[in-house]
Specification:
The structure is a homodimer. The first copy, chain A, has 12 helices and 12 strands. Chain A is an alpha/beta fold. Chain A has 2 domains: 75-187 and 323-349, Rossmann fold (3-Layer(aba) Sandwich); 189-322, Rossmann fold (3-Layer(aba) Sandwich), CATH 3.40.50.2300. Chain A has a 6-stranded parallel β-sheet with strand order 2-1-3-4-5-11, with helices on both faces. The first copy, chain A, has a 4-stranded parallel β-sheet with strand order 7-6-8-9. In chain A, strands 10-12 form a two-stranded antiparallel ribbon. The termini of chain A are far apart. Chain A binds a DNA duplex through helix 2 and helix 4.
DNA sequence: CTGAAAGCGCTTACAG
DNA sequence: CTGAAAGCGCTTACAG
């Protein structure tokens, strides 16, 4: 049976093609392409006809066709990690039940990436992968083929697959680690955590400290941990961390750590340093539920300085990162790599700053 | 001068093509494509050779080429609005200075979209446009051509351009308004705000109410406003809203409203209902700075029930939306439209629920 | 300045 | 089951 195939064969999609524009304007598709891409080298006459046809038809070039032909998708892939079990609830009076959080840090960074990307006409293709995903390599590769360059949060890939993939596409890691083939953009964790640790250990004189981590393999979390541990050792203070203290960057994860610790009868240290602000929120919430006052009995600190940090019952002492700049920088670097410019540095470090508020034990009035 | 063009002409990108795989495997590109796409109809022999070549080369099909050929990009575009001036600061002791927030509601919704998208092999192409952007139409069209379908937050486009664009590509609006050509997914604002309003007006007996809005033209904000105004009128309570009360869904916007109101010597109502939670955070922060206690002198409420709502100095009374479900539903609908399935409903409404905590004036112990 | 033509890297009928 | 070929919708030398 002969199928009815009216209107020049387009059935599924109603989008006009460059051929439609050319026909309406009475010129060749090459001319249409030219007025749309290079401003000069077209007679005003031709130009007007094309522009009018474009407006009339509501035409915009198909991204896939354009990308294939121009060898540029104008898309940068961004991959972030999220915790494995979709944020499992705590026990009975779980304040986080059926409550999902978004990771502020990621959102702000993505905003920074987007701001820079927009100036170059690029868009963000965003995907998140489970921290325990064993197909991370494959899924990253798939995303890579839809993009011109990749920005990878945290430590998404091992060195081997990372370097291998970098042979196919420009890659910038964010808060990861630099490799011979990829550039990394990060905050100065050592400096910020150093300041914070000394404030806690020397200014406040706390003798016992605990560290609630982020993902176990997260470079940011590890760096913060290491600096804190070293500072604690330097003052002879006791330091607790490890599996029992492992969080996941989310408030729910921080709350869980406290709940488990208390359930196991562990004595809490005088100060609990958290891998990031959201973890600190969860820790403070859990402590409050258990009737433990912050900061008089246990001091709590964060890292990031997200907007929410100052709206808390007890305003958060934390370390500020230039989150959006981190994202903007990451984009500028991939963009330059996409443009075949070899980046001058492999490890770009942005400064951090200690922000002292109340949760460390300092009074509101200083 | 003759340029050196080794390695089969590929200089810029190091990514292998289907031709490379075919050559290494000793088969045609059609066979490669087949084993990669349709599991059956390939001799195990051929299949093995191809798979090995694929693994060896680290091959994955180019997204643009695949999209052009298969007429499917496996990408859904998501566009959200952001406030015009990049969050201008307040005056002197501006607690939000150099502090940018991300919109929780958007992030959670995008997470919901992504979760559903991932199950179908789709990725999210995210772009945000200024609420005052006069080129929104054009920028939306451009994004549309990189996607198979569009999810538009809030009221991004006017009816006319919206319906026109819908002729080219499936469109679902989120918290927008349904049109003959587009499907809308939203929360039941009237029901949630009705409950909240009655709690404030009847249970607490407040006689004066103010409404800090979101973007002026936001359907969500308008619906909430209208329901609140009607309930206030029904009880004879005074109701304040309008230009002086216009926020922008961000904490900074909410804080600004309070600052301006107080600077103008306006007497505050007994209860301030905010368009969303983040606005409420800003309002509460501003009130605290001005020495006005919440909830004893002024009650404050939000909308959304973001995770942070319960970590506040004064826990937020709010209306819970099923944010991720909103996003997941939106994706499922565009997906079905992309698959040429006509959606059964044009206006999909998800339920909301009043969550009473402290900021409305209810004690902690109930 | 403009058009005809090649080619980007795939998928998919069409023959065999 | 497999290969040769057409075609997806553009961009860009190449001639004129």
């Amino acid at each position: 049976m002969v199928q009815a195939r009216e209107d020049s064969g387009r059935l599924g999609t109603g989008a006009p093609t460059i051929y439609d524009v050319a026909r309406v304007a009475g010129v060749s598709i090459a001319s249409v392409s030219r007025v749309l891409n290079e401003a000069r080298n077209t007679r005003p006459d031709t130009r007007d006809k094309v522009l009018q046809a474009v407006a009339e038809l509501g035409f915009a070039p198909d991204g896939a066709a354009r990308a294939l032909s121009a060898r540029l998708k104008e898309v940068v892939g961004v991959i972030e990690r999220r915790p494995s079990p979709p944020l499992t609830g705590l026990e009975d009076d779980d304040v986080f039940a059926d409550e999902a959080e978004s990771l502020q840090f990621h959102d702000m960074i993505n905003r920074g990436i987007e701001m820079s990307a927009q100036m170059r006409g690029f868009d963000l293709l965003i995907r998140s992968v489970d921290i325990a995903d064993h197909q991370a390599d494959y899924r990253t590769l798939a995303l890579a083929r839809k993009s011109d360059g990749l920005i990878l949060h945290d430590r998404l890939l091992d060195d081997d697959p990372l370097v291998r993939l970098a042979g196919q596409i420009p890659i910038v890691t964010l808060a990861g680690v630099a490799t011979p083939a990829t550039v990394n953009v990060r905050s100065d964790n050592a400096s910020g955590m150093g300041e914070l640790a000394r404030h806690l250990l020397r200014d406040h004189g706390y003798r016992s400290i605990g560290y609630v981590s982020g993902y176990a393999d997260s470079p940011d979390s590890r760096a913060r941990h290491d600096t804190l541990a070293a500072e604690a050792a330097a003052t002879g203070a006791s330091f607790a961390s490890g599996p029992d203290w492992q969080g996941n960057y989310y408030a729910a994860g921080g709350a869980q750590v406290i709940d488990r610790l208390l359930a196991a009868g562990t004595a809490l240290p005088r100060a609990i340093v958290c891998a990031n602000d959201q973890t600190a929120l969860g820790v403070m919430g859990a402590l409050r539920r258990h009737g433990i006052d912050v900061p008089t009995r246990v001091a709590v600190t964060g890292f990031d300085d997200i907007a929410m940090a100052r709206h808390l019952r007890c305003q958060l002492t934390t370390v500020r990162q230039q989150i959006r700049e981190l994202g903007a920088t990451a984009f500028e670097v991939v963009y330059s790599m996409i443009s075949h410019v070899v980046p001058p540095e492999r490890d770009i470090v942005l400064p951090t700053r200690l922000v002292i508020r109340e949760s460390c034990g300092c009074g509101t009035e200083v």
